[in-house]
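Give me structure tokens for this 304-residue protein.
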Amino acid sequence: MPFTFHSHSGEFCCHAHGALGDVIASAIDKKFHTIGLSEHVPRLRTQDLYPEESHLTPAHLAQTFDAYVQKARQYQVSFRDRINILVGAETEYINPELLALVEGLRARHVLDYLVGSVHHVREIPIDFDERTYLQALDACGRSYDSLFSEYFDAQYELITKLRPEVIGHFDVIRIFAPISEMSFSDRPLVWNKIVRNIQAAVEYGALFEINSRAWKKGLPGAYPQRDVIEELKRQGAKFTISDDSHSPDQVGLHYVELYSYLKELGITELYYLARDDSRGVVVKSMPNALDHPFWALNGYTRDI
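Here you go.
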């Protein structure tokens, strides 16, 4: 304990740094109980490549993903006496064809789990940088109501069609919104979609990650922010934690703030995925998770 189910490496992701083995070694050094490996699924079209991928093609991305799974499975065996490793992927949803691709990848590679994330609205990236975020806002008529609504509609389609085991950075759509526009509670249309999405994921037993990378982006809390957390609690959602690390030194990043955030919100029970020889991947509970010595051992309980 504890764990992260959202991680990337520079070996298989152009906007990350460091080798996959070094990410795992960092987790071991910090006494993590479990790490989930979740490189991005490949994208299908040249226009969906990010700027740092301009030297690549969709075919390269597909080959890279296959190589990732192969190496991750090797590490799953070679590190098994030191840390529990799950091999998964983080989804994309740009268009319906990509959802079909993800389903095929999950079946072909027998992935342990999926992190269900949305990174685009109107086929435009919303968490890559502020410039493209504003392009997505322009495409939605400069309306934050429309931008947020379309994001949560895409998330709902992903949740209902893929049923990902972990819901990734639930409200990342707020990443570049000004403080004056961040509120969901005074947007009834948007809030109803949030309630709907949570209900759909809770019904099949998804875990909702509390993602500490939001602090790196300058947000005033983790993903999800406090208003969504309270709705998740009201619906009886199961929480897990993730660092969304993009390099070995980011494993456990902002877990100091995360520890305080969990205490503030009264979240003491966490859930995690585990491999079971007879049942496959199962969900397990860790009551009183904040009392685990991991937090003090790494200095995560100090005042911030």
